[in-house]
Structures are given as C-alpha cells and as structure tokens.
Specification:
Elements (H helix, E strand, L loop, with lengths): L2 H13 L2 H8 L3 H15 L4 E4 L2 E4 L1 H25 L7 E7 L2 H14 L3 E7 L2 H9 L5 E4 L8 E16 L12 H4 L5 E2 L5 H12 L8 E2 L3 H9 L5 E4 L9 E5 L6 E9 L5 H7 L7
Parallel strand pairs: 3-4, 3-5, 7-8
Antiparallel strand pairs: 1-2, 5-11, 6-9, 6-10, 6-11
Helix pairs in contact: 1-2, 1-3, 1-4, 2-3
C-alpha cells in the first residue's frame, strides 16, 4: 500500500468522482484510476460503487475515508507547523466557497501580498463547505451559512442587502424601490431549499405575512438570473451577487431588513501563519 494510492482513494471519495479528483491532484484520470485499482487489488476489496453518474464509497470505503481524513488532516497540520516558521514565501492553501465572486476577490488580495502561495479553490454548496472545514479537507471556507460550533473560528467578510431582480421589460423595472408586497404580486422564482438567499427571502415573506407560490424552482444563482432574464418571473438576490446583466433590473427592497452575511471560516485550533495571514485580508463590506 502506497501513500499515493491512499491519496488517490481519498480524493475520489471527497470529490465524488475520478475526473474531479484527478484535476484536484493534477494527475491524469487513468493514473488516478490505476492507483485506486491497485489498492483494491492488493487487499482484494471494493472501495467504490461505480455508477454512470459517478462513484460512491462502499461501506468499507466510508470506513477508510474516516481514517484518511484524519491521516491527511495530520499531514496538513504538520505542513502548516513547519510552514509557520517560514516567511510565507511558499506553500499551499486550500479553500472552498459557496459562490465564487467574494472568494476570488479574497484570493486576489491574498496573492497580491503573498505571490509565492499556491491557492486551490473549490465551489460547493454551503453545507458541503462547512463539512469540508470540519473534516479538515480544506483549510478554510467562504460561506454565507455559518454553523454554530466551538471548533470553528470565523470573521465577517461582507454584509449585503437583498434586492429584487426583474426582467428589463417588466412594468416595475423603472422603479427606484419596491416593497415586498408589490413583488409578491409577480410570478416568483424560488431558489433551492438549501440556499441561504432563499431562507432569508422566506423569513422576510413570513415576517410581512405574505404567501407566495412560486412558478418555478431553480438550483443556483446563475439559473435564477437566466430565468429572470428570459421573463419567467422575478427573484431575489444579494446585491453584491448581481452581475450587471442588462436584461435584468436589480431594485432595492425598501422594507426588507435581512442581510446576506458572508464569512471566512477555519478550524479554531489549527496553528497556521498562512491562515492567519488570510484572516487579516480586508475585502471591504465587513
């Protein structure tokens, strides 16, 4: 059993597929598959259920994943302890984010100060981001869904109000402000249930005693913007997330008090000068 074989297994289990794992490890997919196959052959076991839509660890694979998470977490901690004695001239930092815009802004500011650090950034939903931090799969995460957990250290990166998104051809598109009650009269598009934006919207609608039956449910911010742009209805988004699409008008909601709060999160008991330096970066809006 070789270290590279365990790392290959761990990457496939964490990323849910051979292709994404190969990209993360900077290997060809055949080379990665060969590592996993040799590990299975050496012990006469099956570590993954291989299906058309991806792979899933077997019961044995799930048990091994618990061990490799601890193993590579210790490896990362050892690396960070050694790197902490240096001058941040080289090293690696792994991040997860539930949306790319703020994370990219943070990485750009960090790299401007520490150009020798190689940063990897993965995009996942908010729940997965938190799981990756807690399992020590990544060093830190940028997310709007902070968990209450004494193992975590966090800081606010940005606070943004919610705004309405309407098709440019809408009769309300020329307004400077809108009320939620006005927006609720339009055909409404909702995000997926686990979306933080969707949760905030539903809390605001409930606070105003408004009932809305959506005409469409979509997954992801990009899908929401495209649906609005094509005139399928209206939606709600955090102001900083709007990409300026000319087919859409973003209008402030005058009676909406909720804010989208985005955090930088790490494990609290993880000594690392790299993470300390990352947490010192000011991207504005905090």
């Amino acid at each position: 059993m070789q270290h590279a074989q365990l790392r290959a297994f761990h990457a496939v289990a964490e990323h849910g597929g051979f292709s994404r794992a190969a990209q993360a490890l900077h290997l060809t997919q055949p080379a990665l598959s060969d590592h996993v196959r040799r590990l299975e052959q050496e012990f006469g076991v099956t570590l993954f259920h291989r299906r058309a839509r991806g792979v899933e660890p077997t019961e044995l694979g799930r048990r091994l994943l618990i061990v490799t998470r601890q193993m590579f977490g210790c490896e990362r901690a050892a690396r960070d302890i050694l790197a902490s004695a240096g001058a941040l001239a080289s090293g690696t930092l792994s991040l997860a984010a539930d949306a790319p815009d703020l994370a990219i802004k943070l990485v750009a500011a960090f790299r401007a100060l520490h150009p020798g650090i190689v940063v990897t950034l993965g995009i996942a939903n908010a729940q997965s981001c938190m799981e990756r931090v807690l399992s020590n799969t990544v060093d830190a995460a940028v997310t709007a869904a902070l968990q209450v957990d004494n193992r975590l250290q966090s800081r606010v990166l940005r606070r943004e109000p919610l705004v309405a998104m309407l098709p440019a051809a809408s009769k309300l598109a020329g307004r400077r402000k809108l009320l939620l009650a006005e927006l609720a009269q339009e055909a409404f598009i909702f995000r997926e249930e686990r979306s933080v934006t969707q949760r905030l919207l539903e809390e605001e609608l409930a606070r105003h005693g408004l009932r809305v039956d959506p005409v469409l449910l979509v997954e992801g911010r990009e899908a929401l913007e495209e649906a609005v742009a094509h005139g399928l209805g209206v939606g709600v988004i955090a102001r900083a997330e709007f990409n300026g699409d000319r087919r859409i008008r973003a209008i402030p909601l005058d009676d909406c008090g909720s804010e989208m709060v985005e955090y930088l999160v790490r494990l609290a008991q993880q000594p690392s000068r790299l993470l300390d330096a990352l947490f010192e970066i000011d991207v504005g809006g905090g």
